[in-house]
Design a protein that fits this description.
By secondary structure, the chain is mainly α. Helices cover 70% and strands 2% of the residues. The two termini are 22 Å apart.
């Protein structure tokens, strides 16, 4: 995930204040993009905190899981908190805008991709380093099992980073192809997605995993279309959104897909592992609604300087919030476990929510402390001058693929794979991506 600071009239520096950045925003900026990005990170955090089940069994042992496993009736909440499709649409809009600026200066594709990956990985390596050290220390102290559970839980959100890395790496090639023949490229991609979905229902091995890339790429293309003014506007977009909502509801009521729009263990026809037609329809409806109201949102932010400054500030720590919110939940949960304060009521009941709210509040407090400590790395990465990538396009694509695979391994739930994934992420950063002090600036 990357964010793009408001376009200033003077060059940004790592010491630029929120007030400076907010005040230097161009008048024609689509500020709704920034708000959606910030709100998405908050929604993901709250959604994950709400979904986590931490309790104890009769022997006092820690039991964890997903609330939807225990109370499927809560699935409707995912129709509010599943914001990742919109985030990929926002990412496509931002990538198209950034690529236009980069290409206008005669920049190379690999330099643009490297800049985006550096913004994502600079904060991520801090997370990897902390958990690697934590695993080693806890194992030496005889608490390796608990640390391993925490490390794998903290990595749950990273599936998103793995997919976003791939879509970012191919954006310099997909965007011009899309602009040359938008209907053909988008239509062909949707068709391929549909055939692969059929292959999944036919139990064809391996092929369905291609939709991990294609599904999220379609949302990125929608962002390209939004940036280029190809989407309906006004009442036409509102009608389009209504039609998409009807199609999404029909898919989960009449079709084989579940109501939940997130994955959890034991879910048949999971909407996101890999993305399905149901998620595509839901994400399109959610995003179309956001696009329909974006002009009014952007105008409102332009008129309210305090709200816009808050959005700018939130975007400066958005990735830190995303990366660390599960770690915060692990720390808060461990504290409540030690104190005997974990919820004990039946999941999904009013009593459970009453018992759970203090744990969610504690997670927010811990996250605020962590973000205050680590977010400087993210802000420096966002505002740092772009450095040229020391290699060609093939090496850049291989680096992105390696990064995606390493993050996938980190997030797959295996302690050994997590340790390997974290190590590979660190190797890629220090060996390939991290700009040296002597590297020239990218054009």
């Amino acid at each position: 995930m990357t964010t793009t600071p408001p376009s200033p009239t003077t060059p940004s520096t790592p010491t630029a204040s929120v007030k400076d950045l907010a005040g230097a925003t161009k008048a024609d900026r689509n500020r709704a993009i920034d708000l959606y990005r910030a709100v998405a990170m908050i929604a993901v955090s709250v959604g994950h905190w709400a979904a986590i089940v931490m309790t104890t069994d009769a022997d006092g042992e820690l039991v964890t899981g997903n609330a939807l496993e225990f109370a499927p009736s809560m699935s409707w909440l995912t129709w509010i908190l599943q914001v990742m499709p919109l985030f990929f649409v926002v990412g496509g809009f931002s990538s198209a805008m950034s690529l236009d600026s980069h290409n206008a200066r005669g920049g190379r594709p690999q330099d643009w991709v490297a800049a985006r990956l550096r913004r994502m990985l600079a904060p991520t390596i801090t997370l990897a380093g902390v958990w690697l050290v934590g695993l080693a220390v806890a194992t030496a102290a005889g608490a390796g099992a608990y640390a391993a559970a925490g490390a794998t839980a903290a990595a749950i959100p990273l599936w998103f980073l793995a997919n976003y890395t791939i879509d970012t790496a191919i954006a310099p090639y997909v965007l011009p192809a899309f602009r040359k023949r938008p209907v053909l490229v988008a239509g062909g991609t949707v068709t391929a997605f549909g055939f692969i979905e059929l292959a999944r229902f036919a139990d064809v091995p391996y092929l369905p995993h291609v939709n991990w890339v294609i599904g999220w790429l379609l949302f990125q293309m929608a962002g390209f279309a939004w940036r280029d003014g190809l989407l309906p506007t006004g009442r036409a977009m509102a009608v389009t959104a209504a039609g998409l909502w009807a199609a999404a509801i029909a898919a989960v009521t009449l079709g084989p897909w579940p109501t939940a729009m997130v994955h959890f263990p034991g879910l048949e026809n999971s909407p996101t592992h890999p993305p399905t037609v149901a998620l595509l329809l839901f994400g399109a409806a959610y995003s179309a609604t956001a696009v329909a109201v974006a002009p009014r949102v952007s105008d409102w932010l332009a008129r309210h300087g305090g709200a816009w400054s808050a959005v700018v500030a939130a975007n400066g720590v958005a990735l830190s919030v995303y990366l660390w919110h599960f770690t915060a939940a692990v720390i808060a949960g461990a504290t409540f476990f030690a104190a005997g304060w974990l919820p004990t009521a039946d999941v999904g009941t009013a009593a459970w929510w009453i018992q759970k709210l203090p744990l969610m509040g504690a997670s927010a407090v811990v996250l605020a402390v962590i973000v205050a400590m680590v977010s400087g790395t993210e802000r420096r990465a966002l505002l740092a001058p772009r450095a040229a990538f020391d290699g060609g396009q093939a090496l850049m694509l291989a680096t992105a693929a390696g990064t995606s695979a390493a993050v996938k391994a980190w997030a797959n739930g295996s302690v050994a794979a997590a340790a390997v994934g974290m190590t590979v992420v660190l190797v890629i950063w220090f060996g390939v991506l991290k700009p040296s002090a002597t590297e020239p600036a990218a054009v």
